[in-house]
Every structure is written in structure tokens, then in C-alpha cells.
Amino acid sequence: MSNQQPVLEIRDVSIAYETAVGPVQAVSHVNLTLDENSIVGLVGESGSGKSTLANAVMRLLRGAARLTSGQILVKGQDVYALSPQELRRFRWNVMSMVFQSAMTVLNPVMTVEQQMIDVFRSHRPEMSVREAHQRSLELLDMVRIDRRHARSYPHELSGGMKQRIVIAIALALEPSLVIMDEPTTALDVVVQRSILDQIKELQKERRFAILFISHDFSLVSELASRVAIMYAGRLVEVADSQGLTLADPLHHPYTLGLMRAIPHLSAEDVEIEGIPGNPPNLVELPTGCAYHPRCPSASAVCEREVPTLRQVGGRAIACHIFDPEKRGEFAHVS
Ligand SMILES: Nc1ncnc2c1ncn2[C@@H]1O[C@H](COP(=O)(O)OP(=O)(O)OP(=O)(O)O)[C@@H](O)[C@H]1O
Ligand SMILES: [Mg+2]
């Protein structure tokens, strides 16, 4: 454990969307900490609240979304206490984000270099055009894109190249925290692999922290040193990725379900099974633990009480099975 200040502290954060059918509780009481230079993964099914949480960290919640509880600190700074001007500076210099629809973020009528120069010139006004130009070429080198593409327009580039450029731009001002929301989901497997390898390399060389968001459990557990698993807006488990194997039974039943759904080349005797049922409707969440209708181990207490994260064998798990006072309720679970 380091005694350094964490780069990101999410404290008891809840977020709701006001809708015609009532509030949609997209994120509920999430606590998560990222150390400097670490990669933490955030996994969960579609609609579990990953992007909503990421947008809240960047203070980019729009329209109907409201932060209804909690605090978000980046390098010790409360993101919601910044003035608009401070926030603008903070966003590129201290924290940045690669958006889920990253490839559509590039401006189609500007060359790659113009877009990079724009970032430097608007955030480092003291920088000369010549230096911004030079730095833009270096950013292309960094993500191994030929400098001749500086003059290309986005439509002239492949999906993988555009994604590399978006990542380069997010790193342009050397932030301490980069949130990557499904940065490779739209790409084919080979390109995805090469971009992930590059992200890993860049992170080692340039030392920044990444909150890496994906619905792909195996991808996240490979890339990140720690993984937070989200279900219906709540974290159900936060664990070191080495411990995320079926050989270790101390996990949330949802995590076990995710692990059983991964095809393993080496273990022929492990059957691949999906998790039966569907994620819940956030407008009418099940009572108690939101996972209980799908959980093979659920007991009556799971319908009544929301479990909170507790320390179990070096990880945090929100499941009544691990509460010594409720153990009697789970006599049916072997
Ligand atoms: N503008 C909105 N108005 C109302 N509800 C919304 C809005 N945006 C998102 N939601 C709801 O909030 C929940 C969380 O959405 P979010 O986009 O954060 O999920 P996600 O985990 O990022 O999903 P995905 O894997 O599909 O990107 C969803 O159930 C969604 O229906
Ligand atoms: Mg999302």
C-alpha cells in the first residue's frame, strides 16, 4: 500500500436521471480509489452505469443527470468545487477522457494536425505555433502513426488510426488521470489487441493512471491491476485482477457468473455458461440486492436488504453470503 495521495477518489457517489417515468438511479453509492500510475478496470453489463460514473468524474453530466450524493476528488481537488475556468484547465492538464464514441469526436473538416495544434494552443497559449506543430508530430510518433498523416483528414484514416489519434490527444497535456470508456469496442480483435498493448506501453513509459471501462471482463482483468465490477449502478466487487479466477471461490456470485462466461482454452472441463436472466430495469430496481433475481445463491435476506461492500480475503464484496451474521440464511449454499 502506498501512502501517496490517490489520483482519484470517488466517495459515495450517486447519480440519477430525471425522466418522465421517474428518476433512473444510474449510479448508487459508489466508492472507488485509484492510485497514481495504476490501471483500474470498471466492468459491467450495458446500462450498469459505467459511462454515467465516468462523465461525473469529468463533471460532464448533462441535462437530466444529477449528482445526488457524494464527492469526487482528483489529485485531492474536489472536481465540483472548481470554477468554470479552473475546470477547463483541469480537464486537459490533470484529467482527460477517451469517450465511448471516440472516433466521432474528431472534427471531420480539420486535419489531424490542426486538431492537435488546437488543443495545445487553447490550453497552452504561451506555446508558439512552431512548437505546437512539433509537439503534434511527436504525439503521432508516440502512437506510431506516420508523420505524413498529420495532414490527413479523419475520413482518410482507418478506425484503429483514428482511435490512436484520439488517445494521443487525450495524453497531449500529460494528465495524471485518463478515463478510457470502451476505447476499443468498435474495432476488430487484431486492432483492439495492438491498441491495448500500446496503451499498456504508454502507461508504463509516461506514468499516468487509467480508469479503463469495458463490458469485456476478460479484457479488463488482463489489462488492469485492479477491477471494479458494477451491477445496476452499484459496485458489487473490487478485487486485484490476479485473484479473479474460478480457482478462488471468494467472489460475488455475479463475478463468478462473469468468470464462468469466459471461454478458457486451457481448461476443457470448465463449461462456458452465460448468466441467466437480464439486467434489471433501473426505474424499478428489485428490492434488496439488485442481483438477487438472477443469483443462484440468493436467500430471503437478499430480497430485503441491500448488501454493502465488506472486506473479504483482500477484496471488497457486496454480498450477504460473506456477512458472518447472515451466514445462517445461506445453509442451502454449499
Ligand atoms: N439521458 C438519459 N436519460 C435517462 N436515462 C439515462 C440517460 N442516459 C443513461 N441513462 C440510463 O442510465 C443507465 C446507465 O447508463 P450508462 O450509459 O452509464 O451505462 P453503461 O454502463 O455505460 O452502458 P454501456 O455499456 O451500454 O455503455 C442506463 O440504464 C440508462 O438507461
Ligand atoms: Mg457506456
Summarize the structure.
The chain is 28% helix and 23% strand.
Tell me what you see in this structure:
The structure is a single chain. The chain is of the alpha/beta class and 334 residues long. The chain has 2 domains: 1-94 and 175-281, P-loop containing nucleotide triphosphate hydrolases (Rossmann fold, 3-Layer(aba) Sandwich), CATH 3.40.50.300; 107-173, no CATH class. 28% of the residues lie in helices and 23% in strands. The protein has 9 helices and 12 strands. It has helices at residues 50-57, 84-93, 112-123, 129-142, 159-171, 189-206, 217-223, 253-260, 300-304; strands at residues 8-19, 22-34, 39-43, 65-74, 77-78, 95-98, 177-181, 209-214, 226-231, 234-240, 310-312, 315-317. The strands form 2 sheets. The chain has an 8-stranded mixed beta sheet, with helices on both faces. A 4-stranded antiparallel beta sheet has the order 2-1-4-5. Helix 3 (112-123) crosses helix 4. The model has no long low-confidence stretch (mean pLDDT 91). Residues 17, 19, 24, 26, 44, 46-52, 64, 100, 215, 282 line the site of adenosine-5'-triphosphate.
